[in-house]
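Milestone M4 deliverable, item 7.
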Amino acid sequence: MAADPVLVLQLHRMGDLILTFPLLVRLRQLWPEHPLWVVAEPAFFQDLMPLAPDVVFFPPSHCETLAHGTYAAAINLSSAPQAARTMAALEAPLKLGPVADATGLHILGFWQLYRAALTLNNHSNAFHWADLHLLDLSPSPNLMAVGHARPAPAQTRRIGLVLGASEAAKRPDAEFWARLAIRLAAADMPAVFLGGPAERELGDEVARRSGLAHANLCGKLSLRELAQLMRTLDLCVTPDTGPMHLADYLGVPVLNLSMGPVHARETGPSSPGQWVLRAGMSCVGCWRCNRNRLFCKQAFAPAGVARVILNMRHEAKAENASIEGATAGLHLYRTGRDALGLHTLARVPGAEEKSCRPLLEDVWQAVFLFLYDQQQRPLLRARLARLHAEHPALAERLAARFAALCAACAGHLRRQGALPEDFWRTQPGMVRLFTGQLHMFLQNTGFSQAGWRAALERLAALAPLFADPS
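Output delivered:
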């Protein structure tokens, strides 16, 4: 008798589908005898099929038929109502992600709920989205069993410039790309301009401004051909976009120009050993920019980025060498994996990290790891202690804000009602990541007594740790 399939619904863009590949690899490990089915947009999966793990793809038009099936597990990574309805109708002992049944929309899975709560509220998030896909599959948040590609240059000196992104705010303009290409060519590092049909006009403009018409391949390659070309590159310089995730998955060295409303800790390159360049500003990593212009984007200059690339090449040739950002206003980071196998993003060796933000992000990461797995208490204590040691005033304010949050929740519980719709938004920024998840958790339970009890138990477990991490 054939084993029930494992079903994954991923109806978003190409980058989201590629970020699902580590999950597919893990599902293949956990259910080796079961077929693995994925629902995705044909425009994205058709050319990715030779590169994807061993799965069977279906278009969204098959959801109605798939909803009548029985599965070993079903995971919905989509926000589409169609996917949530499919999840409600199918049968599976394990369901994760949004499910729309007769009682409304509910999100199943601790980490799937956490991911959903990041919408417009991701400022202190330290989890990569590819990792969040995986964490609900085990009671222990350990991803060491998940493999990742290691970047290796092809030794051709060729540099790929991925020109486009889903929003103009997330990518450099044509003048930037042209000036960067000219500088790279002068350093004997010829560039090729990469992009799909949507970047054809941009590619033509960059080619005209740079005088490098032969370098323009925008709109001329299929996704499969793009993957083949990427394997011949020494480096792929790219904004946060689908082709960046493709290069990362293939093991191509990546320099991510992280600008606009993107957060490199959650959607940047996920493999260890990649590079991320972003503005040295406290507001980087936002979900949506509300300022009158993109200051983080203005920090990027072609000359500075070219110097970073040249320094990266020198660092690769010199064992244990360290490199600086090489330009004012920008910080250079390297991706890695910690003791739990979770994605990390650290300033390059030799660069002092003065901001308190990475520590605050790490504290909140440890908070949610602890709430999911009580054995992570030592990690949370260690990170809180470090925050107290390096930024004592901030640690004291954080403890006070958390105590005030406990009091506010106790007051709402006495009234036995739902929290105001703007509850999470009105909380101080340093605790808003937590209040957003707490608010959505209570909404997910319909503000039931059991939901409130669980929420207060979480607050009670955390309050003494914030007050005294020693």
